[in-house]
């Protein structure tokens, strides 16, 4: 097997017994002691990296000190009824638990220029057996028309497809949020199901719509939506978030 | 590369800001709409029906001014594509002066 050809098929006669405890040989490539039959990557190939800095925003992991700010945003008049708590006001403790329930990946979306907290993007309920995961996001200021939150969602979608073998990402939203997502349905999202008159809000019932972003569709649009361009790698946001900084 | 055209080479950026017709052509291509729809008096909210359309508009404008955003106080239900072109050219010239 050529070291420079990671796709070549190893000679079955030279493949060691994976249960063997004997010395796996010189081709061990990691701290876990992978068997020598494993293809060795081309030395010139860069290691896979995660991309959290976009042109307009930076994705930053959630910290304990962010909880109050996120809770205030999620329970605000603008977002309270429209997102996951649907108008309820969970306790700080229950809120913290709900924030991490089933989460695989979760980031705050921070503006590169003024370090405002723009929103939250979460990947949750990953089903590795079926190759699916749910993706949700909230824009903390609905009047904000900057491209930051959408860039954050696209970066997380790219992260999920790049580093997990997901076939598709699911999203679900109540009908009244679809107006803002309308055109997203066309090129990117497929409506996979609809629960008629599922949720009550504002004096009437609304449909719950299930959407899906397929890997093939993402790969078709990826370079257009996340183009590689020089300069402006994005300035790292300040490390200390002042609660309520987005107001 | 023609001055004002969006760069096709990711390592290059235009030396000149676009005139409106050049911008309209690229915006129409990015949003998948007819070129004749993107006229100076067209409102941004009519051209960009949703968040992803608006994002694609910004990606197009980013070719001239990295990280470009329209002024936060601008009401996109009132602002026109002529306003978008105006702010893009203004920011482009501001950057050029600073360089």
Describe the secondary-structure layout:
The complex is a heterodimer of chains A (247) and B (99).
Chain A: E1 57-61, H1 67-74, H2 92-100, E2 103-111, E3 117-127, E4 132-139, H3 148-163, E5 168-174, H4 178-185, E6 189-201, E7 204-214, H5 215-225
Parallel strand pairs in A: 4-5
Antiparallel strand pairs in A: 1-2, 2-3, 3-4, 5-7, 6-7
Helix pairs in contact in A: 3-5
Chain B: H1 20-31, H2 44-47, H3 51-61, H4 81-98
Helix pairs in contact in B: 1-3
Q: Are there runs of chain A of 5+ residues with pLDDT below 50, and where?
A: 1-34, 236-247
Report the end-to-end length of chain B measured between terminal Cα atoms: 21 Å
How much of the sequence lies in strands of chain A comes to 25-35%
Rg of chain B, Å, rounded: 13 Å
Report on the structure:
The complex is a heterodimer of chains A (247) and B (99). Chain A contains five helices and seven strands. Chain A has helices spanning 67-74, 92-100, 148-163, 178-185, 215-225, and strands spanning 57-61, 103-111, 117-127, 132-139, 168-174, 189-201, 204-214. In chain A, β4, α3 and β5 form a beta-alpha-beta unit. Chain A starts with 56 loop residues before the first strand and ends in a 22-residue tail after the last helix. Chain B is an all-alpha fold and 99 residues long. Chain B has one domain (17-98): ACP-like (Non-ribosomal Peptide Synthetase Peptidyl Carrier Protein, Chain A). Chain B has four helices and no strands. Chain A binds chain B through residues 55-56, 112-113, 144-147, 149-151, 154, 179-184, 187-188, 224-225, 227-232, 234, and chain B through 10-11, 13, 30, 32, 49-56, 58-59, 62-63, 66-67, 69-70, 72, 76.
In short:
With 247 residues, chain A is α+β, with helices and mostly antiparallel strands.
Question: Which features would summarize this protein structure in a list?
Answer:
heterodimer; A: about 250 residues; alpha+beta; 7 strands; about 20% helix; globular; B: about 100 residues; mainly alpha; Non-ribosomal Peptide Synthetase Peptidyl Carrier Protein, Chain A; about 45% helix
């Amino acid at each position: 097997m050529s070291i420079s050809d990671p796709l070549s098929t190893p000679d079955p006669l030279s493949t060691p017994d994976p249960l063997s405890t004997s010395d796996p040989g010189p081709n061990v490539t990691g701290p876990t002691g992978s068997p020598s039959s494993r293809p060795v990557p081309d030395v010139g190939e860069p290691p896979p990296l995660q991309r959290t800095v976009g042109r307009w925003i930076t994705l930053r992991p959630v910290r304990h000190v962010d909880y109050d700010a996120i809770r205030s945003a999620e329970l605000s008049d603008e977002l309270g009824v429209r997102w996951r708590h649907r108008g309820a006001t969970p306790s700080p403790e229950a809120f913290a638990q709900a924030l991490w329930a089933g989460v695989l990946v979760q980031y705050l979306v921070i503006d590169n220029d003024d370090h405002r907290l723009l929103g939250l993007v979460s990947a949750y309920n990953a089903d590795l057996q079926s190759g699916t995961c749910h993706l949700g996001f909230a824009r903390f200021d609905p009047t904000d028309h900057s491209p930051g939150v959408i860039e954050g969602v696209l970066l997380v979608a790219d992260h999920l497809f790049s580093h997990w073998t997901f076939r598709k990402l699911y999203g679900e939203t109540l009908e009244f949020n679809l107006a803002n997502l309308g055109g997203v349905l066309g090129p990117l999202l497929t409506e996979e199901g609809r629960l008629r008159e599922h949720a009550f809000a504002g004096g009437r019932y609304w449909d719950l719509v299930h959407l899906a972003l397929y890997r093939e569709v993402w790969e078709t649009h990826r370079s257009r939506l996340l183009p590689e361009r020089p300069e402006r790698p994005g300035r790292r946001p300040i490390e200390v978030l002042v609660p309520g900084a987005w107001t | 590369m023609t001055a004002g055209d969006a760069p096709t080479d990711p390592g290059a950026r235009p030396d000149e800001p676009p005139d409106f017709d050049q911008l309209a052509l690229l915006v129409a291509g990015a949003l998948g709409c007819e070129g004749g729809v993107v006229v100076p008096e067209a409102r941004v909210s009519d051209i960009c029906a949703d968040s992803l359309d608006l994002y694609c508009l910004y990606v197009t404008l980013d070719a001239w001014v990295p990280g470009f955003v329209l002024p936060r106080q601008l009401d996109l239900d009132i602002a026109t594509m002529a306003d978008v072109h105006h702010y893009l050219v203004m920011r482009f010239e501001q950057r050029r002066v600073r360089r």
